[in-house]
Amino acid sequence: MSRRAAASAIILAIALSSCTTAKGVASNPIETRWVGRSAGEFFAKYSPPLSDYDDGSNTVYNWRGGYKRIKQQNGRSSSVSCSAKITVSSSYVIRDITIVSDRPGANGPSYCTELLTAS
User: Fold this and answer.
1) How far is 61 from 87, CA to CA, in rounded Å?
2) Which of 5, 16, 18, 59 has its CA 20 to 30 A from that of 68?
3) Which residues form the signal peptide (predicted)?
4) CA distance 84 to 107
5) Nearest Cα to 119, choosing from 44, 32, 26, 33?
6) In angstroms, rounded to a whole number, what is the distance separating the alpha carbons of residues 105 and 73?
7) In the β-sheet with 51-54, what is the strand arrangement from edge to edge?
């Protein structure tokens, strides 16, 4: 392998390694809005969790809310809600939100995104 090819391969490897998502960095609009904020604020706004469990270092809440009947883009009406697992630190700060169940929203493919990112 020539020096130029080797140098290109090293530069490419470095560039690709910097593209990985670090744990705790928001990777979607819901996480951008809620990660780092109080779980109390979330539950006060959207309803309390259904259940919780300790995963060893955090508390994980099973949450479902946002029950609503919406008119979708195709003109049909449907009942929607959102389900998520919300990982919370010992200081009650949201560390991660994983959507478990979602439906198409009124304005796009995700009702959960519409609900949980609205102002």
Assistant:
1) 6
2) 59
3) 1-22
4) 20
5) 33
6) 8
7) 51-54, 59-71, 77-88, 94-101
